[in-house]
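Predict the holo structure. Ligand: phenylalanine.
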Amino acid sequence: MSQSNNRINSKREGFSSSFGVLAATLGSAVGLGNIWKFPSLTGANGGASFLLIYLLSTLMIGLPVMIAEITLGRKAKANPITALRTLAPGRLPWWLIGVSGMAAAFLILSFYSEVVAWVFAYVLKAVNGSILSSDPAVTLAAFDTLSRDPVQSLLWQWVVLVFIGGILLCGVTKGIEAITKKLMPLLFLLLLLLGGASLTLDGAAQGLGFLFNPEWSKLSASVVLTAMGLAFFKLSIGMGTMMTYGSYFRDDQNIPVTAFRVMCADLCVSLLAGIAIFPAVFTFGFEPSSGPSLVFITIPAVFAQMPMGHVLMVMFFVLTAVAATGAMLSLMEVPVVILHERLGISRSKAIMATLVLLMVAGSGAALSHSTLSEFKVAGLTMFDLADYLSSNILLPTGGIFIALFVGWFWGVDRFIQALSNQGQLSNATVARAIFFLLRYVSPALILLVMLQGLDLI
Ligand code: PHE
């Protein structure tokens, strides 16, 4: 590496403690995916059978790709585009993975920030009690009033974006790391309280049965693709987020162990969210598969009927806001660090530019429930399209190329060396197993699932 590169890298910020690394990485993985996507997708696609495919995708594909990304990021200590340029100079254009990652970040942020916008609005509504009604017709009307109002939709989205941009302005250590270190423990505490409250309800057994009984008849190629897409989305992989965070990892951090912990903790959060939601849903006679609105329509109606419902509901929406904050920080960090390092502009300018671009790019999704509700591409609103394209196409495609890069280009020796922290850890067997998955299993599986799920074979 050249001297000037070294100088840039030595000024680069990073995570300062081992717990900070874990909190930030887990903060990225945990998000709306656990609370808004996981329960409603599981509900709609057959409960435990979906869960099983999701678990397999996470283990066989998600974990190895996550480890690969973090390793590449830490090795290069740069944004995804520069990282791949440095690690693969002059050959095939692997850095395009970074470009597609940036596109994915914008796509995901465009709809994600809108859901977070509703969550933020709901925190206020929960506090003042205006959504506390046991009549789903009333909670539905409350949600419609919010989501169908173009001005409120845009304004709340901007509030969210500026809030996240503000944390990023404080930097990687004092912004991302400091805040996720506080938020992650709070998240687990809130989830345990909520899960515990839900399990005391009459419908607990039925709710858990729904989550843990397989309904194989619902399984299809597109359901498998959805489960795999969820695995990518959940672990924030396939788009350079983990590569970016990897570039902030400490050199003595044990990458496979950290990734494994993040994966397990993330699964726990999803299951706890399911345990908090489904028993309550069944107890009060709601439909489990009512889609993403489960969180905004069903939950308030459910809480309204529970003892201490008001407090629990505030807790639930604060919890969701907390989870979403860590994920949004990592999503926005990708374009910010790319613009900052590639264009040589200051970090604050890069944040401003990203915010402005996002306000424009996100408006399509923000207005999908109001002004643009009739505007559809391939039968999907801009909101649904951004969601579908990112989870089911861009992230898995990014995953294939990351796995191929490590498995066929970077090579086993460099991978083992990097995973062992330059010989400090003796984990060669684990590294070899992960390498095998990356070289053969993950890319082949991803491709197969994508082709089948998209009806191409
Ligand atoms: N993992 C986050 C969630 O579950 C979403 C995310 C996807 C974050 C991709 C970063 C990158 O909500």
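Residues 309-343 form the longest helix (35 residues). Residues 12 and 77 are 8 Å apart (CA to CA).
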